[in-house]
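A reminder before we start the practical. When you read a complex entry, don't treat the lines as separate problems. The point of joint prediction is that each chain is placed relative to the others, so the output describes one connected object in space. Small molecules and nucleic acid strands, if listed, are placed in the same frame. In the example below there are two entries. Take a minute to note the order of the lines before looking further.
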Amino acid sequence: MKLLRHALDEDPGSLAAADRLARAYIDFGRELGDAHYAGYAEAVLAPWLAKSPTPPLVLIDEATILQYRHQFTDAREQLKRALAQGTDNAQAWLTLATIDMVQGDYPSAVHDCSQVAASGGSVLGIACTGNVRSYLGQAQQSLVILSQIAGDAPSLTPAFRAWVQGLLAETAERLGDWTQAEDHYRKALALTPKDNYLLVAYADFLLDRHRPEQVLSLLRDCSQSDTAFLRIALAKSALHSSDLPQYVWIMGARFEALAQRGSDYYGREQVRFALYLQHDPRLALDLAQRNWQVQRAPWDARVFLEAAQAANQPQAAAAVLAFIRDTKLQDPVIEPLARELTAQLKSPTVSAR
Amino acid sequence: MTAHHRSTWSALPALAATLLSTTAGAHSASDAYLTLTEQPAMKTAGARQTVVHAQWDIALRDLDFVLKLDDNGDGNIVWAELRKHQQAIAAYAYANLMFSADGGSCRIAPTRQMVDDHADGAYASLMFDVTCPGAPARLTLDYRLFFAIDPSHRAIVVFRSGDNVATSVVSPDKARIELPLQGNQNMVNR
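Here is the predicted structure of the whole assembly.
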């Protein structure tokens, strides 16, 4: 990063140098789960963002930052501006596909992925399509598709291969194949051992498998990441650890600091914090409802249903249950939960509270 | 949220061995905390100035990014490194903060620098007084710390005046805020 900074200082007018440094900051920040670097990247991009027309490369970098901050509407705006300068831009389509998937707009994501394939080569397009299908009740097909490119992968970068392995892990989880899921998580982490997203996803897998000790050793060096910190606290809770109150206090303070500054990055995590560490189902449900307006990935559906169930308000989950039905979402945790809440909804003994 | 553990920089023996980590426990966004407390207007008829006491907490990891506090590059900022850079921290910080009142400029007089432990890591805590001539109705704060290197930096400003407490967030889009002073009112009432 020092070298990249030096290169930009030597040649401040170079778009390539600015893009390389901004990308390095974005990637490093994502890896650490640390939003400071997104801010540093934004400062590097600032002079280019002020230009008209803004180079597509810069618009995509900015969209990536905005996506990271869950400012999805603004991120879409930047991507549309980039695509307006030329639709032959795989990275822009892929970023758009990612946002559509996070927000549960799967028809748009399918379209974006076809554009990725058309403009960026088949491997990226296949990964993209495989990813969407795993959310559409086609996890088995998705596994086959993704495995194909995982086999092809040695020629590709470690980051890309780790991404595919991560997708495979999550898809195997959709199918309840824990052995295969864990195998893919381990392969992914062997490629990019510090990737915050992967570490957190694997930690969630371990928490679900009742293996909290392993979460603590996995995330030993990750306490700077707010998302990782939540998993550490959840593991402490599962272990009835005596220092749990300290972890709950720190997590609460961090969320409060984010709220104070007007940032709303971690809706999903805040629901789990309220539900499992503050033991406040009503607050959790309230947070889940707000989060659902922003994000609709499987985990968002899951925490919503868990909060609705804990608050004994199945009727609050009606829209989420409909979404799960419509998309045919497969998930061994979500499906039974959805069935239970649907049954409660239909049962006349449940009164609207 | 800011239940802190405070230690004065002059309390050397207690802190000398402490490592102030720049990374461990840091939370993932850049915030500074500026607390302003208006000193009640003096009763003496001759009081011709308004004083606001201030505490400005700035994350060491943010300062490190600009000022390279971690001299030995081991990822931790030790007390000795901090003390060495105390002047540089003050110079950099105060160059990015300005106060005025009813159009007239105000003076910043640093009083102390300390270290403050927040939930997300160690902060440099800069204490200072803002002195404005007369009994102005409004204090204007102009803030630009870190905005050039990190536009996502925010300052959480807490302003206490009499029984009132007001909180605002300073950002690059809202780098200047106005705070109503009570000194004027009190003087008039008297």
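Discuss with your neighbour: Chain A touches chain B at residues 33-36, 38-40, 42-43, 46, 69, 223-226, 249-250, 252-254, 256-258, 260-263, 265 (CB under 8 Å). What might explain this?
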